[in-house]
Amino acid sequence: MKQLYFTALIISSFAAVPEQTYSNVTKSEASTITKSSPQRKRLDTVKIELSNSPKPINPAAQIVIVKEKESASNFGRMLPIISTLTGLVVGFFLNRFYEWYINIKKIKKSGKRWNIELKTLEEPIRHQIKSIEEFKLSVAKREWRYDPLDLMTTINSERFSSLDKNDLMDYLEHKTKFPWYKQLFSSDAQVQEQYNKAAKISNHIHGFIDVLSHNFQHLNNKWDEFQDGISSTTKKLNQDLDILNNQINSLKYLIANDTQKLYRSEQYKTFFDLYFQFISHLNQNPNYNMHRMRVDFLDPAMMELAKLTKDNRILQTASSISILYTDLRAVNSEKDYLLDNMTELISRYNKSLAALAKIIEKLDEKIIS
User: Fold this and answer.
1) Whole-model pTM?
2) Looking at residues 293-318, what average pLDDT do you find?
3) Which phi and psi (to 5°) does residue 132 adopt?
């Protein structure tokens, strides 16, 4: 488009050049004037009467040749040059203005996209905070089953990977600059101050994005760690519960076939009733809260076994019940650790939400002060 514009301009300039007329130079010394063939009348010639017989010429006479005015001739010669130079200058400034306009338009478009991406973070952050709070309450109830945690993947840094950091800096620098009529009188210190202000806001935005990405990664890691920890501790609890079940069956067999009759079997009846009631309840209720196992079985069972300390056959059973205590504490420790991390993440996301509000407020200003 630019090449066509310049070509048309130059062609139109040369087409406007007027035809130049040139006067014939007459000899200054002439002895006679003879008859010649008729010639076309020219406006710039001297009228001379012709005669068949030669006439003497007065030596003192002067022949005057009328020429075009020099001023008009010079202006005519300079006109195409002036037109060409004017076209080049105007074309240069139009080209520069076009480039400036396109650049400003690009900067504003990039800044608008950055602004939109930042504004669309507000709702996902609020939703993430709400999800963490609900998940935290569910875990704090000490129910064996808990609500899932929603991870808002839209608040990670992936959405900003397609945006150019230089575009953001150009946009902020454009917003922090003085108006053009003030820039003419701005000192170098003032110009540097405006640049530093734009750089500070840019660093603040990128720092906010990095923190947000780190928080999301931290939340994701803690969720995975919690899932792995609960899975491993629950697996061990079930394994130890199976060991206890085998030991109690063996103990029941030994007591039932006791030939020494050190104790009457009725002394063990309370313990066995307690155990089989617990196992029956556990098998019939798949959603049984294992956190209640301590109250429903472990504590009463240890009290009954304490009455049978003289019987060495109960030692393995008592040891297995102690291990189940440890397994439950491990499960609770995983949940306590998770609750501490969730509390910290809620605080971090609230701070990010406040920081985002300030960033959006700055970007919405017509001129950042």
Assistant:
1) 0.68
2) 89
3) -65, -40
